Amino acid sequence: SQHEKEYEILIPYVVHILVMLVLRKACAREYLYYRTPSPWLQIKLLKFLQYYPSIMTSDKPYVSQLQNIVSKILTETDVSDSINKSNADHAILFEAVNLIVIWGSSGPTQQREGAMRLLGKFISVREPNIRYLGLMTMARLAQLEGSGQSVKKHQATVLVSLKDADISVRRRALDLLFVMCDTDNAEQIVDELVAHLVNADAAIREEMVLKIAILAEKYATDLRWYVDTILKLISISGDHVSDSIWHRVVQIVTNHPQGDLQAYAAATLLVAASPRRCHETAIRVAAYVLGEFGFLIAERPGMSGDEQFRVLHQHWPTVNKQTRSLLLSTYAKLANLYEECRPLVAPIFAKNKNSVDVEIQQRACEYETMRAAFSPEAVEDLLREMPPYVDKESALMDRLRAQNGSGDRDPWSMGGEQKQEEMNGRHLSPEHLPSVIEGDDNDDEDEDEDPLPQNGNYRRPASNHNVPTSSEPMRAPASGPIGIPRDVIPAMRKAFSRLCTSPSGVLFDNKLLQVGVKHEYRGSQGKVSVFFGNLSSAPLTNLRCQVDQSEHLRMQAQGTPGLMGPDGCTVAVRTQAKLQLMVEVTAPFDDAPALRVTFETDGVQHDYPLRLPIVATCFMEAVTLEPGAFMQRWQSLDGQDRECQEVIKAPANSPINEDSMERIANMVTSGLRFGRCQGVDPTPWTVSGAATFRTGAKDTSGNNINVGCLLRVEANPQAGAYRVTTRTLHPICSKAVKNVALVSIKVI
Fold first, then answer.
1. Least confident of 10-24, 98-112, 279-293
2. Tens digit of each residue's pLDDT (9 = 90 or more) over 579-615
3. Exposure class string for 661-674: b at 16+ Cβ within 10 A, else e
4. Would the pLDDT of 421 be above 70?
5. How large is the angle between the packed helices 261-273 and 280-293, nearest 10 degrees?
6. Could you tell me which of 243, 332, 465, 562 has the fewest CB atoms within 10 Å of its CB?
């Protein structure tokens, strides 16, 4: 399995042997096992073929033979009266199905459907070994595109397997339920799993809790249901609810201030923590959420500030040191919000100033002396609710991958890194290509840490945006053309960023060539003029440019004769050539078109890869919304796939003040082409805007397809940072707007 390429020449021989064993039943008598020709060899050969998933895309003559072999195995395998024969035949069958799964969408559709029908029959038989293999293989098959609906037909049978006496069968049933879950059946599957958790063995409980938490978060259409589900997990199996699970609840509640989720979570957790006997994990979640959002329910009967304190403090004697530390922080926040809580909290701080636990002692000392050491405004600022967390993939998925990880290398893990690289490289831009200079040439400010603390930790901002933050050069071959000089790169990056929001300017400039851009847009269409000026003392010969075509942009190009041709054109000293592009956008995108400029001067060839500043915000149309309408649309666009958010440090030469906020507002309206929605926020440190992304694509009714976009830029003067949040119906559109806003803030 370490040198697949070296053994690829054996594939025709392997197929030939399988033809003899499966299709012709040609086998020496001593190798017949219950009338099955050499089952061990068949299994080994089918396993060998699983190392070559692209075999079905080739035009080799043995491909059709291999399809016939797999079809024969699928159609002629059945449950036998002889256990030995049945085991051998089914071992061959499951390896054939594994081969179908490895082929994926390149394999015959009818074979995938036939395999699913067979597996549906096998997961219902009494023999546990066959049931186990059927569940495991169906989970793999269910992950193929287009298999979702067919696997759902077996949901009831899989749920029955959760109650099987064999724990290995129960684990495979849990894996299959996890794979087949989607937005349509999520609530039913999660509720069934929660109900089964009550009687589940301790050996499988932790895995069940983790997968229930992931499914509830991933497919929740109502986040209140998600909160209720996690509370059920805590009440049923609190010992198996890890810190990462309740931390995720806190993050989700904190990041969704819209609607009544925060108030609902606070009220629900207060009720959950009211009994004297309550799991410690529930107390931790309640302490954090009530400290942050308890004020939202303080006016309700029986939920005042002192009542929240009483409910939490009744658990003080029975909880551990970590929970007590969290409770102290909650007490400090309650005392800051409610006068009646201060005399209740003060003795607790005084008593714990000499605690043997350093963390508890430090918190008690700091909270007790805080009001004497700082002004009321500073205390208010220190104890205000935490800012939203930076959105990223749930840590629960990392835990699940760690649990499922294996050091063994097999065909199921083969090529994973390569596929991930291909997925990450869908939108290649010059900043993803090697540089003409050695070493890391990222902006220094990109190396700074995220200035906004998130739950006591500092997080680094994302380091790569698919929307280009510069027109980075690529490395020229050592013996080939000369690439972009190193000293030009910083200015080139800033020029590109400015042109993303400016109608005209210089894109590239050195002692030989100056590239200027002028672009204007209306709706989904735009006109882009690119000028190539000769700044050298000699003519530029064979000057030619090439603009890469992309699926999301339709382009028509014309320019100086020869500029787009194979031989190029000649640009005399102090003159220029011109390229004009008519563009129309057809779909959301987050990359900019590549422009390659090549020319020759003084016998030296030059090759400059650039990027045109044609970005998603060029095709925006401003929309002005009333505050109520803006918030209503903002809430309706809530969701992980629809929102993009990132924190960026303010430029060193532009501290956050009223003037900088005015520049931010101008950038949003003039640069990003958004309509400013005033009155949405009472604070002057937030700018909100709305726009429509126009495309030239048509729907079935003949109308243009457009995407509504919302944007918020929030400033934190104390931290010297901005948080940019975008929400749209299209995830690529959200990402594109966010990234253009980030690079624009750097140059305001």
1. 98-112
2. 999 999 999 998 899 999 999 998 899 999 999 999 9
3. beebbebbbebbbb
4. no
5. 140
6. 243
Instruction: Give the integer Cα–Cα distance in Å for 192 and 55.
Output: 41
CA separation for the pair 426, 718 (Å, rounded): 39
DSSP reduced 3-state for 458: coil
Of 486, 490, 518, 483, the C-alpha closest to 502 is 518
Name the E strands within 486-539: 504-509, 513-522, 525-534
- Nearest CA-CA partner of 647 in 716, 600, 565: 716
Q: Return the axis-axis angle of helices 280-293 and 321-337, rounded to nearest 10°.
A: 20
- Tell the burial category of 241 from Cβ atoms under 10 Å away from its Cβ (0-12, 13-18, 19+): buried
Three-state SS sequence of 255-321: CCCCCCHHHHHHHHHHHHHCCCCCCHHHHHHHHHHHHHHHHHHCCCCCCCHHHHHHHHHCCHHHCCH
| Nearest-angstrom CA–CA distance, 192 and 195 | 5
Sequence-distant contacts of 627-634: CB under 8 A, at least 24 apart: 627/677, 627/678, 627/679, 627/680, 630/677, 630/680, 630/688, 630/690, 630/710, 631/258, 631/680, 633/690, 633/708, 633/710, 634/258, 634/710, 634/712, 634/727
What the block records as the tokens of 415 is 């090529």
At 215, list the tokens: 């499914």
pLDDT tier for residue 126 given thresholds of 50, 70 and 90: confident
Q: Report whether pLDDT(694) > 50.
A: yes
pLDDT surpasses 90 at 697: no
* More confident site: 259 or 160: 160
Residue 305 · residue 340 · CB < 8 Å = yes
Q: Do 470 and 492 contact (CB within 8 A), yes or no?
A: yes
pLDDT class for 705, splitting at 50, 70, 90? confident
Task: Specify the pLDDT at position 629.
Answer: 87
Separation of alpha carbons 475 and 430, rounded Å: 10
3-state helix, strand, coil in the chain (%, to 5): 50, 15, 35
Kindly state the average pLDDT of the residues 506-518.
92
d(CA 36, CA 27): 9
Tokens representing 459 are 């997080």
C-alpha pair distances (Å), 569 with each of 36, 263, 537: 73, 68, 17
pLDDT tens for each residue of 105-122: 778 888 888 888 888 888
Give the span between the Cα atoms of 659 and 661, in whole angstroms: 5
pLDDT value of position 83: 80
Confidence band for 411, pLDDT divided at 50, 70 and 90: very low
Classify 616 as helix, strand or coil: helix
* Residue 213 near residue 397 (C-beta atoms within 8 A): no
470 vs 416: CA distance, rounded Å: 30
Segment 314-351, tens digit of pLDDT? 999 999 999 999 999 999 999 988 889 999 999 999 99
pLDDT, greater one: 444 or 526: 526
What is the overall mean pLDDT for the chain?
83
User: Is residue 712 scored above 90 in pLDDT?
Assistant: yes
Interaxial angle between packed helices 280-293 and 305-313, expressed in degrees from 0 to 180 and rounded to the nearest 10 = 160
Note whether 304 and 266 are within 8 A (CB).
no
Query: Using 50, 70 and 90 to split pLDDT, how confident is the model at 393?
Result: low
Cα angle 705, 708, 714 (rounded to 5 degrees) comes to 155
648 beta partners: 722
* Cβ neighbours of residue 597 closer than 8 Å, sequence gap 6 or more: 513, 515, 532, 543, 544, 545, 607, 608, 609, 610
Cα 83 to Cα 439: distance, rounded to the nearest angstrom: 64
Tokens 């995108």 belong to residue: 589
Residue in this structure with the two tokens 């819209």, named with its chain if needed: 258
